[in-house]
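ok so for the tutorial part 2 we go from a plain amino acid sequence to predicted structure tokens. step 1 is just haveing the sequence, like this:
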Amino acid sequence: MKEIKLSNKVKAYRVPVNMIVRLNTFATCLAQHYYSSGESFNKNLKKAEARHILTRRLFFHGVLGEYDNSFWESGNELVDYYNDLFELSYKWVIKNYPYLVLVDEN
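step 2 — the prediction. this is what the tokens look like for a chain of 106 residues:
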């Protein structure tokens, strides 16, 4: 733990946390980000932006994500929209972070 000052001069503590991120976790974070913001998936997403999304989603929602899995069992068109986002996110992560596929296999 390290004492720091925020940009508004408020004192705070910085606590480093290590998490193991797997392919499914990364894809879930990206898909839920685009689902929550109502945007379509950015196929030209840069790695730095994706890591920023991942970090924020993990900080606020953890590895399980914002939505409980039972939320997706309703079978309406919003679920289809999320599934499309997840598929695009999954393919993007495989393309840009191929070593995560090996981690998921173990």
